[in-house]
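Subject: Sanity check before I submit

Could someone independently write out the structure tokens for this chain? I want to compare against mine line by line before I put it in a report. The sequence has 439 residues.
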Amino acid sequence: MLNHNDNLKPRDLYLKQLIAFRDTEPVKVVTGVRRCGKSTLLKLMQRHLIETGIPEKQIIDINFESMEFRDMDCRSFYEHVKGKILPGRRMYLFFDELQRLDRWEDAVNSFRVDFDCDIYITGSNAYLLSSEYATYLGGRYVEIKMLPLSFREFAEFHGYKVCEYRTPAGETKRKAVDAGGETVPWEDLFEAFVHYGGMPGIADTGLEQDRALALLDGIYSTIVVRDILEREKRRGRRQITDPFLLRKIVLFLADNIGNNTSFNSIGNTLISEKMLEDRSKQGKPATQTLAAYIGALQEAYLFYEIKRFDIKGKAELKTLGKYYIVDIGLRNYLLGYRDVDTGHIIENIVYFELLRRGYDVAVGKIGDKEIDFIATRDDIKIYYQVTDDMTSETARERELAPLRAVRDNYEKVVIAMSTNSTAAIEGIKVVRLIDFLLE
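---
Independent answer below. Compare away.
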């Protein structure tokens, strides 16, 4: 149950989505990587209910990470909740990390049928919403896809307010102000964001490297053990059994964010390091093993794959997708902090910012040129190039050329970490990275 002493930091982007679906039939399913804030979101929703007049006794809250509920089965889960239902009252049911319970979907569906209730659940693995469960519920659920903190949330979680002000020239700008009223350069905050990442728990440990690494180590270990290896056992499968090989694949993907990647390129690297047996001559290619391991990493929301789209042919390409890691702090934990590869790091950050804003995102291919992101939502389409430097003529030409090749009238934008000017060039907008992240 909600503790009134909890110091809950707001996650308004996601809370507003839950509130929008309050008291509607669909089960509200919050998904996302471990420790990204799903449990806190459920607490925020409970606080909203109480603030709007719902008595606490009409709220049932179960966290399946607790030892108290570890031995529950589907039947005892149902009976436990049934015993707390108040006749003639609408109940609000909150179930955290529900994927740990076998056949949980049977109980949830029974709650829907048997009681007047509004249901909210979380899960740290996409298996929670497997095709079997989607079929079982008949589409009567809505998924809220949660991510770690955005750059703006990172600043606010660490005690900085985002304030707007007018320059003498009449331009509106933003500044970061700490609790003592001191202005802090955005560049310093962004450097901290790139270094530590956006896991909400970092705000509790403070921006101190040893503590942050300990937190990230715990998150990574939990993802591997609970959401991949244990889940594989619960499913009765034996495809993913080697944690050492799994880590090798994680390290490869983390080191190659934003690069065009294929199972063959990953396999060749691992085979050369004798981490993977080449069975191609026996008709059992290593790609089958890789597909299983990488699929598990995606199901645990650690890596996201982005497909390539042929702009002229208007078709998705089946080869050479890209992978991005859900949190840059986790990448630094895995590889060590390196002040290199800035271009791909900021690509990674922009990709997840676009997902937060509700866009479907693909890589664009036009002839022999590539556009970093095509972002689409409803009838909106925007082409984005992302670069760390837009100050030289060579850099400008490199980033503008792919956008010039697109002949339609949709918006085209270059997001640059460093740029001499934000004036549009041939109708193509130029936006500073930090300004884009603070929009």
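---
OP: Matches mine. For the report I'm noting this point. The longest strand covers residues 315-325.
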